[in-house]
Each structure stands twice: as C-alpha cells, then as structure tokens.
Amino acid sequence: MSVATFQDMILTLQRYWADQGCVLMQPYDMEVGAGTFHPATFLRAIGPESWQAAYVQPCRRPTDGRYGENPNRYQYYYQFQVMLKPSPENIQALYLDSLRHLGIDPLVHDIRFVEDNWESPTLGAWGLGWEVWMDGMEITQFTYFQQVGGLECYPVTGEITYGLERLALYLQGVEDFQQLIWSKSDTATVTYADVFHQYEVEMSAYNFDYADVNALFAQFDFCEAETTRLLAASLPLPAYEFVMKASHAFNLLDARQAVSVTERQRFILRVRALSRAVAQAYFESRKALDFPLADDAIKQTFLQEVISGR
Amino acid sequence: MVVKDLLFELQTEELPPKSLSLLIKSLVNNINAELKKSQFAFKTVTSYATPRRLAFLVSDLAEQQPDQSIERRGPALKAAYDSEGKPSKALTGFMRSCGLDDPNRLEKQETSKGTWLVYQQHKPGGNIRELISDILLKSLSTLPIDRKMHWGASRVEFVRPVHSLVLLYGEEILPARILNCDSGRTTLGHRFMSNGVIKIKSANEYAEVLRDNYVIVDFEVRKSVILEQLAKVEALENARVIIDPELLDEVTSLVEWPIALSGKFDSAFLSVPEEALISAMKSHQRYFHLVDLQGKLLPRFVTIANIESRDQQAVIKGNERVISPRLADAAFFYRRDQQTTLESNLERLGNVVFQAKLGTYLDKAKRISRIAGFIAEQIGEDVSQAQRAGLLCKADLVASMVGEFPELQGLMGGYYAHHDGEPEAVVQAIKEHYLPSFSGGELPTSATGQAVAIADKLDTLTGLFGINQPPTGSKDPFALRRQTLGVIRICIQAGLKLDIRETLAIAAGQHSPDFSTTAVYDYLLDRLGTWYQDQGIPGDTFNAVRFSHQDITDLGDCDRRVRSIQEFRTQPQAENLIAANKRVANILKKAGAIDASIDPALFQSPAESALFTALGAAEADLQTPHADLEQDYNAKCLTLAALQGTIDAYFDEVMVMADEPAIRANRLATLQKMRTLFLDIADFSLLQ
To answer: Which residues contact B130 (CB under 8 A, 6 or more apart)?
Structure first.
C-alpha cells in the first residue's frame, strides 16, 4: 500500500531515516537553491568527522518559476535530503528500502541507477553518482561527494536527495503538482494547490518582474563584504549564512535577466571564492576543537594521508 | 601440465554506461598482455560486463610458468684461479652473484677464444596461485578511468564503489586482495529478481549461474537479446525501430536483464519537428524511436527495462507519463521560438560570447556573412543568399529548443528560417552549415551551404590562430582539426574552384588586419597531408606537390596533382626520373645562381641537342591543357615520364661541370630548364 498524502510521505521518510540513525534536522530558515546548501550537508561534509542527518529542505530556484502553470516545474519545491558520512557499504540498499517503505515495489517498477555526476560551481564541489530512475522518471539524485569548498572529502559523504513532488506524482498517480493531496482527514482534503498555488504565482511575479535589481546588486556586494569581514573574525558559521544570501541574490538577478553571460561567470566565481574561504575556515575551527565527532581511526588516516598533502 | 579456467569478477555499484565497453576491453587487453609477459599459457580470455560487474574467464590457464634455464658466463678459466690454484677474486665474486659456494657446480665451456666457466642456472616457473594477484593489480591499475572516486572511509579509488571479488581457478579460490576486497566465490545476481548472495562453484559455470539469477553477463549476448526483442517489436507494430549503435551500446550497459517495452505518446506532438522529438526521447530517456515503412516518425517508443516486471503495464504507463512532459516541453519551445524571427534573435546573439577575444556570436555571424559572400562570388553562386544565410546561421543558438537540445543547432535554424519565409537556399544553408559534424561525416550538398560551412570554419580557424591559440596535441577545444578537415573535404569533394589562401586572408581580415595567415595556411596543408596519409598516400607524395613551384591555392587542383603523382610512382620510368631529379637538384644547389639562357651553338654532344629538343617539345605539351581536367596531370606526368630515356642518355654522355665556363653555364641552364618543367607540377626530388 503506497503512502497516500504528501505529508505522510515526509513522515515516512523521516521515520525511516531516523531509524537508520540519522539526526532529524529541520529546514534551514534561509533561501537556498538545494538541500546541499544546508550547513548540515555542506559544512558537515568537510573534515574527518562522522555525521548522519536527514531533513526536508524547501528549495528556491527563481528562474524555474512558471506562475504555477507548468505541471511539474516550480520556483519553490521540496527536497528530502539524507547525508551519510562516511557513506555506508549498503547505502544503495538502504535507499531502496526507503522506497519500499513508501510503498514502491521494485519487483513491479523498473528502478535503475543511471550515471549522473554532480558539480556545483558556486560551492566548489563535485561528486560522482547517479540519478535514480523509476520507470524512466528521475526520482532521486544520489552522489558520493569527492570535493566540497575546494577540499577533498574524507571520509566520503553519500548524499541522497529525493524530489518529493515528483515522487508524490507517482505515488498518487496524478499528473500535476497542483493535484497532489497534501493531507487528508475525515473532514477535509487539502491539495498542494491549496497550500502553494497563490504563493507560486506571486513569487514568480516577484522573481521575474518585481525584484529590485539595484538593491540586489548592492545586497550581493554587502553579503560578499560581510562574509570576508566575518571570516577575518574567525566566524565561519555566520560567514556561511552570508554566502547563502549572496547566492540567492545572484539567483534573483539571474531571473531578472540582469546579468549578462560574461558577468554571470564572474558572479559564480565570486560566490565560489567565498564558499572556499568559508569551507577552509570551518575546517580550521573544527580542527581547533580536535574534530570532536570523528572516529579515531578515520581521524588518524585523515591527518596522516589526506591533509598532509594540503 | 595442469590447466584450468580462471574466473575473475569485480562486483561494483552501477558503472558509467558510456565507458563500460572501453573499461572491459582495456581490462581484457591488459590481462592478455600480462599473462603473456609472465609466460602463463592460456587459450582465450572471454570478457563479461554489466552495469554491476567487470569479469572475465581465462580458459585453460596453465598452473605453472615454464621452467627457465639461464646460462650465465663467468670468468675465463685462466683468470679463475691464481697461481696457487685458489679461486681468484673474479671467480668468488661471480659465485657470490650466483648464490653458489661450490666451484664444482660451474661448467667449462670451450670457445674459440679459450675456456670459460659458466653456470647453468635453473629457474623453476612460478605458480599462478602466487602470481595472479600481481597480474591483476597491474591490469587494473592502468584502466582508462576519467575520474576515479573514493567512497566510505576507504582510501582506495575506482570508477565506482567495489563490493566483492570472485577469483576462482577451476573450483579453487585463489588468494588475492584487490581494492579492499578479499577474493571469494560469492557474488550477487540481479538487483531485484535474484535473492541474496550466490555461490560460484566452478569458474566455467559463471555465465550460466548468473543467467539463472537474471543476469546476462556477456555484453554482446545481451546486445543481441535486445536486438531480437526490438525485431519482435517491429514485427508486432509493423514498423521499423531506428537503432543508433551508440544508444544500443549505452542501453546494453544500463541493464542486466533486458526487457523491451513499447509505449506511445500523443500523436498531437508530431507537429513538432521530428528531430526534436527524437532528441527528447533519445538523450533524456534512452528510448528507441519507431518509423513507419515510409520512414515517417510514429508516436511510439521502445524502452529497454531492466526487469521482468510483475506488472509490465505499470512500467509502460510510467514511461509514457515521463515522456509526455518532455515532448510538451519540446512543443512549447518550438511554439515559443517561432514567435520571434531569426533576424530578431540577432540582438540577443550579441550577448552570447563566442570567444572572449573574438567577440560575440553576433560578431561572428557578421564575419561569416561577409566571408560566405566572398566565397559565393568566387564559385559563381548567389552572393546575397550566402550573405543572408551566413548572418542568420547562428541565430538559433538563442532559441530555447537549442538551449535544451544543443545537438539540434543548425537544424532548428533551418526550420525557423523556413517559418520566417527565408528563401529555400538560405534555409538549406543554415541547416547544413555545421557539416561535416564528425570525421568522415556527410558534407553540405547545396552550394550556399558549402559557402557558409567553409566561412564558419575558416572564421574560427583564423580567429584562434590570430589570438595565438592554435590547437595543441592534447587541446583542441574548438575542434579545429575536424573543422579544417571539413573545409578540405568540402573544397575537394564538391569540386569548388576556390583560392583557399586568398579566402583565408579574407577570413583573417574580418578579425583584424594584423592577423597573419601564414601559420593557418601551413596548418591547413599539414592537415591535408594527414588526410592523404589516412588514405594510404605517403607523405612524400604530398610534400612533392606541396613544395613544387606551383603553390597550393586550389585544393581540387592540388588533389588532382597528388593523385597523378601517386599514379606516376607506379610507372617503370619513375625510379630513374626521381634519381635524375635528385641529382639535378644537388648540382643546381651547389652551382648557385644560373644564367637561364641556353645557346645550342655551345652543345658538344648529340645527347645535349636531344635533351634540348625533348625539353622544348615537353614544354609545349605541358602548356596545352588536357581536354579532361581530371586527366590533365596524368597526361603531364606521362609527358615527363617520356623524357626518361633522353635524360638518362644525357647523364651517361655529358659531364655537366665542364672546365670551360661558358659550356658549363650552358649545361647548367639546360638542367635548370628541365628542373623547372618538373617543379611546376611537383618536386620529384622529394620522392623516396
């Protein structure tokens, strides 16, 4: 029996991954383009410390807005993010079990891991992995991080990112995000459209037509300067928040078509420089604490084989 | 001798489908080479590759290397013992190096130079059990892997995480530890249809046991299973499945248990250009498309699933649900792109950088337009249509369809040009100006298309050379090699009467008056030489033409000359004539400046007069073009070949470097004339 509502799907995934030992986190309360930006992934992937977490993350991609008219493309949507560090030997099996919990029978559906490598120019990060197909539809992104913020990953983080709306389309057998059942009780049925449609329309208008370009350029510059200033004060966590803000300001400028092709590359490089600096500072701060969450053997290998080359 | 089959299997997470074939091929090549190097006898190596395993079976592999006898020569007998009969330093040193302490184990060898002490060392062959691990590690270490990865907390690296290693010799597990896996006999079958670990009892039952567990391990067998299934679909649907070999390979690399399923999509989408629909199906979904018996696209597709589903309809329905929004996207892009004309796209093209120092695509389009106009004028085609096509040929780069499917560039431009009401020649030229799109690929067929195709390529070529970024051995980001070859093939195979050197200068001049074409021209001739070599025409034939007195400007003319020279080389007169040309070239080089006038009054031998007469006749012949252009150089070569007897007789009888200065100068002038006749066609002295 498959999971009937959008919220049950989230609850099921949370329960499942909590049972696997994940720290259940909440969405980060800032605008991000992907669950990877959440410090629980981006920063925790750095250094030798172990970490397992799962959380829902709303993602904003201003250029993807379609005023709520496209059946499966929204500027605001949900990812369910799992990060397991070090990636366990049976990580694929764990993932497939989560699908079974959602009511997907892999003996019925054609489930495959199809090569799809990941690279985030703004985060200075890349990894190798797959998109997971179910009957030809991409339902999950699966990545072994190799580098984050310009730093080699050891141990390696396995990242599993479910596209919740797409998966829900399948589970509920409907064609359009708007038709998804968000929740259902004896007295009321609430759809995705009830929850988000007006928001999608208005935010599309804001992203494409109303966002104040001059203010955003100024905001980007401010966030960049602030990141640098906070890093000088050895405060990587607040500094990182300003990287996220800068990144979002850039995405909005992109949606407003305020950035030319050549400038675009320059902005990406500016964000990447910030990400790298934050990653390095965060690493130093954890090192100063002697990597409290690290497994001893891993820490030794890390110190002897990985950073000796840096 | 004991021989058994050896099985190796590395069970991994899903390997990249586009490199699977290459990986297994390299692995098997390496294994073949390593086994041969270490002298283990075997019959064949059979390769197996699936998304989740790289494996091979070596049949009849010898358990032992052959024993080896090595003869080591020590000191001469007379140097081996001192006057008191005790072993000398030379002897003790030699024995130490052989690990011996008894000199009686050495044998005496008589040679013509005296008696020597030798050691017949017997080296027993090694056992496969001890040596296999090293052989495997060596074979694995040089696989062509673009990007290796780490996983978990392990420090080993491979294409994808590795889970287990099977290494069997007959029924016996051979000890090895590879990529953190200890060898054993257990592996996994199909990810879903097989249950739990499976044991391989004996090496040669591997393929069969895996098949029982829903894995067809042999890549080629799996491919043929897919082909059979596709043939069944064809029969069932009364249609043809279009099989792109690359897609077939990729799909074969994505499944262990292929099941072809056919689905359909809404026929309303057929109003979208079919190339776009095919791209959507192929690149995003890895579907095969179907056409009717007239070749028209049908609203059907075939997907190769990796499971014998308990509910095939569910899988088909799922796939149909995925393709529909994809095609809707394509339809949406097509409609939206048609709302603007290509001409009105030009403004936005000004925002797209072609190359930082060479400006935007709008700049490029304007340059192409002018170059294409020049070419059209040269080859006697409509100039304004070539200019128009050149200007619009890049305008589809800002179309949303091309943003989504870059492989449709040019093609979509053609559709949109047609929609805009551009003349048919312009439409056709835009459509085919990227051709040839791969080495040996088809060429543009229309004259305007050829003009724009050449213009586009020469613009890139002269630009990158102008900013000093020519291709290097490993770096050729603008595919200049392929593009140059494209220009060569279009000029020659379409028989264009075009001065390529002048066209290069026109193209370079569009960038900057400072851009030189010397290096580009040389590069183009180098590529031309390589092109001939690929066709089996040796480099010296091409060089003879390249360094003749008649510069290469018309590539078609050059091609006729090269082929005639190649033909000439097979003639019986060739060898002597080539030798004579070498000799003359040397004499003239040493002689320095020569007064060209020949005075028959100074001839002293009939051979001189004979050559003079023959050269005059040949010169007249060579100046008369042959009625059939294709035969022109063949005829000229025949004329030159006819000189052979006269030239040989001349050298037999005449001493060129006569003491009398006037006679010497006269003879040198004769040789100069002869040399010039040859050099107008080719420098025959360069032929080997």
So the answer is: none
Long-range contacts of B509-516 (CB under 8 A, 24+ apart): B510/B367, B510/B370, B510/B371, B510/B459, B510/B462, B511/B358, B511/B367, B511/B459, B511/B462, B511/B463, B511/B466, B512/B466, B514/B466, B515/B462, B515/B463, B515/B465, B515/B466, B516/B466
B146 CB near a chain A CB, below 8 Å?
Answer: no
Residue A153 counted as domain residue: yes
- What backbone torsions phi and psi does residue B88 show, to the nearest 5 degrees? -80, 175
Do B149 and A301 count as a contact with CB atoms less than 8 A apart?
A: no
CATH number at residue A14: 3.30.930.10
User: Cβ A108–B254 below 8 Å, yes or no?
Assistant: no
Mean pLDDT across the stretch B297-326?
Answer: 94
Tell whether A97 and A63 lie within a shared domain.
Answer: yes
A91 and A115 both lie in a single domain: yes
Nearest to B152 among A128, A134, A156 (CB): A156
Q: Which residues contact B417 (CB under 8 A, 6 or more apart)?
A: B342, B392, B426, B427, B430, B431
The class of domain B3-65+127-212 in CATH terms is alpha beta
A264 touches B: beta carbon within 8 Å: no
Shared domain check, A24 and A160: yes
Using one digit for the tens of pLDDT, what is the confidence trace for B56-69? Answer: 999 999 999 998 88
Q: Does domain B569-686 have CATH number 1.10.730.10?
A: yes
Question: Which residues does chain B have within 8 Å of residue A176's beta carbon, measured at their own beta carbons?
Answer: none
Based on the domain organization, do A198 and A218 belong to the same domain?
A: no
Residue B258, min C-alpha distance to chain A (Å): 11
ipTM of this complex prediction, to 2 decimal places: 0.94
Which of B11, B53, B192, B398 should one mutate to test binding to chain A, selecting the residue with the greatest count of A CBs within 10 A? B192
Is A103 touching B (CB cutoff 8 A)?
Answer: no
Tally Cβ neighbours within 10 Å of residue B670.
22
Nearest residue, CB atoms, B306 vs list A110, A115, A301: A110
Domain ranges of chain B: 3-65+127-212, 69-123, 219-338, 345-536, 569-686
Q: Is A294 on the interface with B (CB under 8 A)?
A: no
CA distance B61 to chain A (A): 34
Number of domains in chain A: 2
B50: phi then psi, degrees, rounded to nearest 5: -135, 175
Taking the C-alpha atoms of residue A124 and residue A268, their distance in angstroms, rounded to an integer, is 10
Class of domain B345-536: mainly alpha
Tell me how far apart the alpha carbons of residues A139 and A167 are, in angstroms, rounded to a whole number: 6
Closest residue on chain B to A138 (Cα)? B322
User: Does some domain include residue A1?
Assistant: no
A128 and A197 share one domain: yes
pLDDT in tens, chain A (310 residues): 567 899 999 999 999 999 999 999 999 999 999 999 999 999 999 999 999 999 999 999 998 888 888 888 899 999 999 999 999 999 999 999 999 999 999 999 999 999 999 999 999 999 999 999 999 999 999 999 999 999 999 999 999 999 999 999 989 988 889 999 999 999 999 999 999 999 999 999 999 899 999 999 999 999 999 999 999 999 999 999 999 999 999 999 988 878 776 678 889 999 999 999 999 999 999 999 999 999 999 999 999 988 875 5
A289 close contact with B: CB closer than 8 A = no
Buried b (16+ CB within 10 A) or exposed e, B323-332: bebbbbbbbb
Interface contact B309-A86, CB threshold 8 A: no
CATH of the domain at A247: 1.20.58.180
Per-residue pLDDT of B391-403, as tens digits, reads: 999 999 989 889 8
Indicate if A94 and A196 belong to the same structural domain. yes
Is the minimum CB–CB distance between A301 and chain B shorter than 8 Å? Answer: yes
Same domain, A137 and A29: yes
pLDDT, average across residues B144-160: 94
Q: Note down the domain range covering A185.
A: 6-207
Of A188, A207, A226, the position where a domain reaches its end is A207
